Structures are given as C-alpha cells and as structure tokens.
Amino acid sequence: MDEKIEVKESVYERNDRISKETKEFLKSRGVLAVNVLGAPGAGKTSLIESVIKRAGIRSYVVEGDIESDIDVKKLGEQGIEAVQINTHGACHLDAPVVKKALSEIEFSEPGILFVENIGNLICPAELTIGEHAVMLVLTVTEGSDKPYKYPLAFQKADVIVLNKTDLLAYVEFDERYFLEGVRTLNPDAPVFRVSAKTGAGVGDVVEWLKERKKNTI
Amino acid sequence: MHEYPVTTEIIRIASGAAEKQNASKVTKIALVVGDLSGYASDSIQMYFDEISRGTPCEGASLEIKRIRPQLKCAECGLLFDMTPLSFKCPACGGGSRPAGNGSEFYIDYIEAE
Question: Which of A28, A174, A177, A189 is most buried by a 10 A CB count?
C-alpha cells in the first residue's frame, strides 16, 4: 500500500543553506559579496576591473567560467588577484562550488568580493551563491528586449548596469522599452548607464556598492 | 538546463523523505515547477529514468505541476500570464508588477512503499 508523504522541500534548499552560511561568514569578515551576472561578452570582467580601480577598497575576486583562466590572467595583468573556478560544463555557479573557491582566499581585511558568474542570463539567476547583492550586467548591444526574455535575472537583480554606452550611436537600442521592462519586473534596482571601457558612469556603481556595504555588512 | 544535478538532488530529497518514514521504495514524486525556474519539464522524466537507476526512486513516476509566471496590473488588478512580448495589461493597457509566482521549484509530496 503506497503511503503519501508530505515533503514541501525546495530543490534548492541545500544550496540555499550553504549560501546562507557563506553570506554570514563573509559578513563576519566585513566583506560584501556581489554576484555578477550577465551574458557572455557583457563586460562583467571589464566592469569588475573598472570598479576595483576606482573603488580604493580591498577587493577579492572569484572568476567562474566553464573553461580557461583567461579572465584571471586579464585581472592579474591589472594587479588584481583572482581565484578561478572552472565548471567544465556546468552552466552556473552554485553555493558549494563557490564555498570551496572561497576557502582559497584569506579575507584578511574588510572589502568587497566580486564573484563573476558563468556568462549566462538563465541559470545563474536561479541559484544563490552566498552573495549580499546581485549585479546584473547588460549591454546596449544586446538589444532592448532582454527584460522580456529573461525576466528572472531582472527580478533577482539588486543593481542593473547597462554597459557599452559608448556604442549607443552604432546600435538600435530602445531605452524606453528596456526601462519599462525593467521597472515592471523590478521597481527597486537602480539602473546605471556605464562604459567599463571609458570609465563613464562607473563612479556611480562604486558609490552604490559602498553604500550597499555600509547598509549590509 | 542542468537537469543532472537538479535530478540528483530531487532523488536525494525524495529518498531521504521515504527513509524517514521507513519506506524503502519511492513510487511517485510530485513536483511543483515554475516556468521561470529554468527546469525543462518535458525532459525531466527522461533524465530521471536514467539517473534514478539503482536508487530508492528507480521507476518512480513524476507528477509535475507547472506554474506560469504572472503579472498583476497596477491599474485594474487583473492577473495575467507573463509573456515576452509586452508587460502591459491586456485589459486596460496599464503597467504591471510580478505577481510573485513562476519560480517555484519544490517537491510537494512523494508516495512510497
């Protein structure tokens, strides 16, 4: 005779539990963790680099990629130390894999930890990885319909960065349509228009991060 | 996407729930899956049959309740399905807000013997 057993457990419960532990550990070290999401080529690494250069605050970086250490090398050339995670096929980072990478970092002073997630607008939005804030990076070159196609990423974002604004003259980008989509899904997250390449607008992102750190950690 | 680790986790949770009630074999797993969760419901049974071999969940049937994400009109209060074309209310054209559903992903209950 089959017995019905109530479960009511989220498939992400174990992940979320580990994520919460990481979050609390980092807070105890005075570190604000930022989960950086965006499609491949959005400029996540460049933005992280640009923010760190301007922030004047101790920064830690974890790079997530399916393969290669290109991003870590690129940051290393700028004097920024980063730990590489290669998932060898997994399309997103999860809390256990990030926790393991963090064990390689000595959080000797308070600061900001940037965890650059796998380039992907779908799966990374589903899982927490121990972050205090989700930073979603979009570009004007990706088209203005991203909020409509990838609603979860926009709902989860705490801050939205619209990158590559230096290219606006060369692309069709309907900013009003984009912002309408963003505002429907997420009334609270600020949208910063930047160019990680030229540095335009990056100062605003830095200020937001510092304020977030002050209010969270 | 990523059906493998997620299916493995479902099997772990379901097997654990059965064991707690001293049941040795899971015959059914009832899942609630929101469309925003990114888990392709149609592929789930296919992967599941493979991955559950040799586990207490082998041969179990999956019952998947899908939840569509909805928006709620800020003007007239209508609840409507979120589609990629427009977030405007189909009734009055007003702006909307997420209704809060569509990203669920949990095991509701299992049946075991």
Answer: A189
Q: Domain map of chain B by residue range?
A: 3-68+101-112
Cα–Cα distance for residue pair A8/B14, rounded to 1 Å: 10
For residue B36, the chain A residue with the least C-alpha distance is A152
> What pLDDT, in 10s, does the model give residues B51-84?
999 999 999 999 999 999 999 999 999 999 999 8
- Number of inter-chain CB pairs under 8 A, A vs B: 98
Treating both helix axes as pointing N-terminal to C-terminal, what angle do A70-77 and A44-55 enclose, rounded to 10 degrees? 30
Mean pLDDT of A49-66: 94
> What separation, in Å, do the N-terminal and C-terminal C-alpha atoms of chain B show?
31
Q: Are A184 and B96 within 8 A, CB to CB?
A: yes
- The beta strand positions in chain A, using DSSP E, are 3-10, 31-38, 59-65, 82-86, 111-116, 133-139, 159-163, 191-193
Write b or e for each residue in A135-156: b if 16 or more Cβ atoms lie within 10 A of its Cβ, otherwise e: bbbbbbbbebebbbebbbbbbb
Nearest to B111 among A4, A155, A187 (CB): A4
Domains of chain A: 12-216 (3.40.50.300)
Nearest to B84 among A8, A12, A149 (CB): A149
Which tokens is A158 given?
Answer: 């705490």
Contact status of A169 with chain B (Cβ, < 8 Å):
no
User: What CATH number has the domain spanning B3-68+101-112?
Assistant: 3.30.2320.50
Q: What is the ipTM of this complex?
A: 0.90
**Residue B113 and residue B56 in contact, taking contact as beta carbons nearer than 8 Å:** no
A158, pLDDT greater than 90: yes
Global pTM? 0.93
Question: Are the Cβ atoms of A4 and B18 closer than 8 angstroms?
Answer: no
Q: Which residues of A touch B14 (CB under 8 A)?
A: 7
Q: Which residues of A touch B86 (CB under 8 A)?
A: 148
- Mark yes or no for CB contact A9/B107 under 8 Å: yes
